[in-house]
Design goal:
Elements: H1 8-36, H2 42-52, H3 56-83, H4 90-114, H5 119-146
Amino acid sequence: MTKKAPGRTFLMVVGIFLIIGSISSIITSAMNFVMMGQEEFMPILEQTLQQAGITKTTFQVTIVLTAIQGVINMVAGIIGVANSKKIEKASLCYICGIVLIVYALICNAYSAFSGAFSIFSVIFSLILPLLYFWGALKNRQALQEEQGIVVK
């Protein structure tokens, strides 16, 4: 008999948010790439970046990081939603949770080095990855209990 998945709700809800957010991130990144390729937008873009204190290179790297994050969030979100009820897939979700946390920290480290650091941004960017990880952890603990592994 398979034990109920106690982290199901976390993985399901956070997974849906990740999927929705990733669609927005991917579309925004694509639009920014297109805009950067249009010569008629370059003077406006350069002026806007200068006013914000951001270099063109920093903006380009941020676009790439956002696109990668969108893909990671999409994959993790789909895995979380698809496997939220399956405690036997808890390790996969657990690994996805770690990847989400690590990538959010990488993005925040880049922001800090590029001069756009905000503690609020760090906290906000870690909320969904931590909730996803918690749901995966709860399912993983349920699997370990079912297998007779002592969990402390």
